[in-house]
Amino acid sequence: MNKSVINKVVSIFMLPFMVLFALYIQIFGEVGPGGGFQAGAIIASAFIAIDLSVHSINKYFDSNMLAIFGSIGVLIYFITGLYSLAFGENFLNYFVLPGDSPQILGILLVEIGVGVTVSAILLLLYMEVMNAD
Amino acid sequence: MNFYQSDFLSVNGNLILISMIAIASFISLINITRSRLAIFKVIYFAIFSNLVCLTYLLLDAPDVAMTEAAIGVCVSIVILILFVQKCKPDSRKKYHKFDYKRFIYSSLSILVLFLLFEELNSVLPNYGDPLSPVNSNDSSYYIENTMNQTKVPAFVAAILASYRGFDTMGETIVVLIAGLGFMLIMAEKKEEEKMEEKGVTSE
After folding, report:
1. Which of A7, A62, A97, B54 could bridge across to A102 with cysteines, CB 3.0–4.6 Å?
2. pLDDT tier at A1 (50, 70, 90 boundaries)?
3. Is B124 in CB contact (< 8 Å) with chain A?
4. Nearest residue of B to residue A133 by CA position?
5. Cβ contacts (< 8 Å) between B73 and chain A: which residues?
6. A positions 26-85 inside 8 Å of B (CB)
7. What confidence tens digit (pLDDT) does each residue in B20-73 have?
């Protein structure tokens, strides 16, 4: 693939801002548009840009590691649901979480799980196609 | 599409924009069949994804528009372009011979579908009508009670993660299963190539 100087410099420059923007969209998903799916897609796009323009990210991201990260995201979601079972309530009942506004805490935890899974799986799909013969 | 809006400018402004988007998406989709190389088809598909993202914005769904722009336009098109590069190159033979029979059959079927669609459109309620069955059963409950029960300002996040949190867990699990399945398909090819190199025959 033709790697030009402009793509390289812009990708390296934009990587921290894209990760920051993805975190912003993740956390402000309860107040405005956003959430876990959008943030995961933006993080995956940042690293795909680095892979296409600068150098291969094979030694930073392994396929097995990305699959484990995807499973960790679903595990975060599941554990937030199981936490309320210990108090005798329904599954995914956010009212037993500590703090003033338990619903906001519950939604935040759940969306973090979704974001981790979506970003890991999108990166995994890209790397599998890139490393094919 | 009939809009239930209260003032003149918002009705006509939306209609003009949506008509322009419809014409542009029709042209880009037609050109998918007319283009010679596979990479051109992928580019026309990316243009169509962009126009769909604009349509979601015009229909007041910013979450869906953001997701379409990030996944449908960026990541999905990159993966398609990689697939096109890894397949063998297209043949140079021109296959455009105008077939009258095929043209007439496809035009007739499109006409029949269009007439069916117009018939449906006259029977269904208007878009955004507050008295339609879609909007009058649950929407008022969510609009009134979301801020009281959960102190979350956005309806979409509250419904997605709190009122219907079980479905979102199912969605996340589906994403995980799709990724793992794809990884298994690609890993099997790598195993076969390694065994061929070592000279092991399959038995």
Report:
1. A97
2. low
3. no
4. B86
5. none
6. 29-35, 37-38, 41-42, 44-45, 48, 52, 63, 67, 70-71, 73-74, 77-78, 81
7. 999 999 999 989 888 888 899 999 999 999 999 999 988 888 999 999 999 999
- Alpha carbon of residue B128 to chain centroid: 21
Which residues lie below 8 Å from residue A36, measured CB to CB, with a gap of 6+? Answer: A26, A29, A110, A111, A112, A113, A114, A115, A117, A118
Q: Pick left, alpha or beta for residue B93 (phi over 0 → left; psi -120 to 50 → alpha; otherwise beta).
A: beta
A97 touches B: beta carbon within 8 Å: no
The structure's pTM equals: 0.85
Q: What is the pLDDT of residues A77-132, one digit of tens each?
A: 999 999 988 888 888 888 888 888 899 999 999 999 999 999 999 999 999 999 88
Q: How far apart are CA A77 and CA A73, in angstroms?
A: 7
ipTM: 0.92
Do residues A45 and B74 make contact, with C-beta atoms less than 8 angstroms apart?
yes
* Token pair listed for A33: 């548009």
Q: Does A118 touch chain B (CB under 8 A)?
A: yes
Instruction: Select from B66, B161, B189 the Cβ nearest to the Cβ of A111.
Output: B161
**Partner-chain residue, chosen from A25, A31, A117, that has the shortest CB–CB distance to B176:** A117
